[in-house]
Amino acid sequence: MEDGFSSYSSLYDTSSLLHFCNDDSASAASSMEVTDRIASLEQRVQMQEDEIQLLKSALADVVRRLNISEEQQAMLSRKGPTKARPMIAALPLRPTVNNGNVLPKKSSMLPSPSASKRDSNTPATKSKQREPVFSADEGYVKMYLKGRPITMYMPKDFVDTYCLDAKADLPSKKLKLDWVYGYRGRDCRCNLYLLPTGETVYFIASVVVLYNVDEQLQRHYTGHTDDIKCLAVHPDKITIATGQVAGTSSDGKQLAPHVRVWDSVSLNTLHILGSGFFDRALVCLSFSKSNGGSWLCTVDDSNDHVLSVWDWQREDRLAEVKCSNESIFAADFHPTDANVIVTCGKSHLYFWSLDKGSLVKKQGLFEKQEKPKFVLCVTFSENGDTITGDSNGNILVWAKGSNRISLVIQAAHESSIFTLCMLRNGTLVSGGKDRMLTSWDGNFQKIQTVEVPEVYGPIRTVAEGKGDTVLLGTTKNYVLQGSLYGAFTPITQGHTDELWGLAMHPLKHHFLTCGHDKLICLWDSDSHQPVWTKTIEDAAQSAGFHPTGVTVAIGTQTGRWLVLDTETKDLVTVHTDGNEQLSVMRYAPDGNFLAIGSHDNYIYIYAVAENGKKYNRVGKCSGHSSFITHLDWSVDSQYLVSNSGDYEILYWIPSVCKQVVSVEATRDILWATFTCTLGFHVFGLWPDGSDGTDINAVCRSNEKILLVTGDDFGKVHLFSFPCSQSRAPSHVYGGHSSHVTNVNFLFDDSHLVSTGGKDMSVMQWRVV
């Protein structure tokens, strides 16, 4: 408990606070002007509120630690799945809720995510497909995708006992989200905060991550159903609001964007706001400060970018107004007047006054100052002045209660200022496109400027950390920790473009990801940190480890492929086959061959020697009439099976690049892996009405009891293996907000890794 309070002391200097509050010299002298007296009182009240929040946060941290302890004890004796943590009686009374879901109170509230798009197993608007057919005489099952018959021959031992109508069982194991890699800084703002509990909070895909860097623990809020775009922390430092985009369900229906207000200790949803009111997405959120955080302001992404104010605890909309036809980058309550909101964006700065249910606009007057194309960020000084940063690199100060400029810091940065942060000690911090982090004193005199290394990218957002540390979010999706004097280290990093490639090390808890950002990253799944990263010349599409783990092959979108040494990340060799995307890189189990599946309809075969360091082309397998999607080798490395974009299943002898057409020669082959989406052992994974493109990736566990899939609806499905009964049941897991492009188990099946395409996230799941 003492350790807990000591950590807060680094966040809030309580001794100086109490000294200030009891120091008579801090009182306004009779000669002070009335406005100065008011400012002094406001500052004193704010510091007292900080002290109160410190105590609340200490309680919250104790509760969080108790919950973690309870969960760890439960895991030791668990016979079933992990349950959500209970609400602790010491916390304020709130509505009865479950993790991510609220019990409905109003007709306007959003239904549970289980009723939404991505939880739907059946695309309802698609015509019902023909039922599978079993031929006992021929020993096959015939299924239909988009009306096309796909014949899958079963092993002889299955023919006599197989029953098409038998029901498959759910798998005995489940998945629990263990770690989320990545951060959304590329196109989002003001989405990084340090909670007094020591957790850094940010989001990626549809997951909010609460990351305790010191303890190396992550917790996750998973109530959202699609991309999260904005985040706000309540003055109590416990309640959090997050807003998401509109989604599209698997049956083509639009799902409403909305705001979820939730408890960061219990991870329970408290309120859902605005379903049916907001349009497209939420882009800005902010809690009021001076009235105890009773109000929440929001801006949506409609054509008019509607600004609205909510009494979030009552789920009541107090006011709304069309804000601007142009982009809005920030909206924030004034820290000492809850009736004042400042918004900024393309060619505008507006001061809004809330009066009797109406929002009245007063435009910021630039007068002699050149009007910037974009006002990008806003914060407030200790005395209540508004401070803005713009695309001209200028910092402008607007006097409290006025819409006129009182001070200009010309050329504070060389280019756009993306973020401004006012620290508790009165230091202003600015950061922007020039990668410069600059600090300013109370008189707006420059204190220090440090440059963030180019590899991390421009500074998107700044947040105050513990003690004298600061947290930076960058446009290259890094979260950095450092000081105003430099020495930044990444605590989170991820990809910056669409992500497809995933490969698991055959002997270690390592996995590799690669994407269209040309970044190759080898991760340690235990430390959750990159072992190394490497940038290549072409967008990467696929990857596969040599069975020894000494090398890894990377396929690109240009037909070029390369092999890297997994210890040194040095280039071993580079080759080119065709000029189209290479979708699959798969080594034979004995390590003597590499099969490469291309979008030019060919499978290229290479003989491999010297533990994956020497390659000679054998030839190419020709026979598919569409692009190659998946490949699997036989256990003895003698055969290859492939799937293509037009639902073909073909078999090959890769050593001579010849197709095998004999059913009897292929039906009893033992396969080393099951990544093909079409085949007798896996056809039960296809839902009713699927068009054949819904399932992007499949993987069987190494223990041969589980089968996992990633689909176009952002879901990971866990099946029992074999999955050879029509429409087999599965456990379904959300988190991704884009198509799940790849899934794979670690070599010992302790964890599963999934990659999100356009959400650029990597998620690690514990198998429990």
UniProtKB/TrEMBL annotation:
Which spans does this entry mark as compositional bias, Low complexity?
104-115
Q: Where is this region: Disordered?
A: 96-131
Q: Which taxonomic lineage does the organism of this UniProt entry have? A: Eukaryota, Metazoa, Chordata, Craniata, Vertebrata
Tell me yes or no: is Coiled coil among this UniProt entry's keywords. Answer: yes
What the entry lists under PROSITE patterns is as follows: WD_REPEATS_2, WD_REPEATS_REGION
Which BP terms does GO give this entry? Answer: microtubule cytoskeleton organization
Q: Which GO terms describe its cellular component?
A: microtubule; mitotic spindle
As for family, the record states: Belongs to the WD repeat EMAP family.
Classification via Pfam families: Beta-prop_EML, Beta-prop_EML_2, HELP
Q: What is this protein called?
A: HELP domain-containing protein
Q: Which InterPro entries match?
A: Beta-prop_EML-like_2nd, Beta-prop_EML_1st, HELP, Quino_amine_DH_bsu, WD40/YVTN_repeat-like_dom_sf, WD40_repeat_dom_sf, WD40_rpt, WD_repeat_EMAP
**Coiled-coil features, chain-numbered ranges:** 31-58
Q: Say which species the protein is native to.
A: Electrophorus electricus (Electric eel)
Give the matching PANTHER family. ECHINODERM MICROTUBULE-ASSOCIATED PROTEIN-LIKE 1 (PTHR13720:SF22), WD-40 REPEAT PROTEIN (PTHR13720)
Under SUPFAM superfamilies, the record lists:
WD40 repeat-like, YVTN repeat-like/Quinoprotein amine dehydrogenase
Q: Which compartments is it annotated to reside in?
A: Cytoplasm, Cytoskeleton
Domain EML-like second beta-propeller, by residue range, is: 499-767
Q: Which GO terms describe its molecular function?
A: microtubule binding
Q: Where are the WD repeats?
A: 492-533, 621-652, 733-768
